[in-house]
Amino acid sequence: MSSLKYQLRSILASISSEAQTSSVKETKERYYLLKRICNSPKSVSKVCRSEGVSRSWFNKWGHRLKKYKSLKGLATQ
Fewest C-beta in 10 Å: which of 3, 12, 29, 66? Predict the structure, then answer.
């Protein structure tokens, strides 16, 4: 398993209530997509491919979420 995937699981769990109450659609979509990728037993590459995003998309948003540890990391800058 990707170490980023493993690290994101705990971060995603800790901000779930923040995501549920967020009114920013784009941020919520990124949160739920990252959550589906991280919670899947399949490899990151396979899940990304089936979800229609690239592995680099996962890395970009995953690292931003890891850095900020809040939904702010998934907002467009």
Answer: 3
